[in-house]
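Posted in: Protein Modeling Q&A

I'm a second-year student putting together a small comparison for a lab meeting, and my supervisor asked me to include a predicted structure for Thioredoxin domain-containing protein. I've never done this before, so apologies if this is the wrong subforum. The sequence is pasted below exactly as I got it from our records. If anyone can share the structure token output, I'd also love a short note on what stands out.
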Amino acid sequence: MLAASAVAAHAQTAPTTTPGYTIQGQSALLAGQKIYLLPVGNMLPAKKNEVLDSAQADASGRFKLHGTVAVPSVYMLRVGQQRYMNPVALDNNATVSAKASQKKEKEGNISLLLSTSPEQALMEKLLPYFLLGFKEVPGDDKQLANFKSLLEENQASYLAPYLAHKYLRMQASQQAYVGTLLPRLEKLHPGSPYLPLLRESMNGQEALAVGALAPDLTLTTAEGATVKLSSLRGQYVLLDFWASWCKPCRAENPNVRATYDEFKGKGAGFTVYAVSLDDNRAKWLQAVQQDGLPWTHVSDLVGWQSPAAKTYKVVAIPNSWLVDPTGHIVAKNLRGKELSKELGKRLQ
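Accepted answer (user: helix_wrangler)
Welcome! Here is the predicted structure, written out as tokens:
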């Protein structure tokens, strides 16, 4: 799953005379750490292991990255091998200064606090809209309308393709709008890696709409048994994409467990088909045991490369789909009491 920006306002240093970007900073937290500049991360799985640039911080935590980017866009900064990453807006005139912080809620991960450029400021301005990137909302949603207005105002910015993909990829109701937006952005920002991703995410949305027959999946349990999603028909099924390393997923597991205990024996019944995007079998199974999850668990242990995730266009987790006894999708991404409330309407 991708992390939220940790942008802070610091004075921007003067541009370098050598063409290209410069990212530099100093913090005791970074001493001896390696700083990586990466492509878009999980949203470009074919480039998952690609490193665009890296630098070793010295004993005082000072580091400097300098190079060129093929396309002005959003890239990712990562400290060491941690999963948490910072989005950074870069073109070949950007000079970015960075400090570091470490917060308990990020499980000890180091966040880079980046100097504010107009592009970073735009990303920060849109942080309140982050849920649009994780949950489908009604087509007349006020926040969605406000985001689209901001996007129209800033379509000339090289960030526009990134913002369109980040905030519209989950919104099936916006297929027609995206159809008119893409040609404009392709003309303004040729070569942006986000535009093909946005086009791909919108293609086939009808097959994943509420009321559609849920695409079938066939995956393997830890014991080696093959289980189809369709084999669970006759009851309500929560198709749940998660991973042991995903903190929001782990936080949601107790809610799903409580709902399972409440509804598994009512009416047609309720169960869970949990698809892990782990790539480490031991950590996957340890999380299942620690969280006490007594339902069907499957995984192909290839992380974001999972064909199942691609079938359901999963780009962030947790991600869930409620499927009725006939195999049709009836709701998406119900969290907390929302899932219990929905099942309460359907199971007596």
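A couple of things worth pointing out for your meeting: Residues 21-115 form a domain with the Immunoglobulin-like fold (CATH 2.60.40). Residues 142 and 148 are 10 Å apart (CA to CA).
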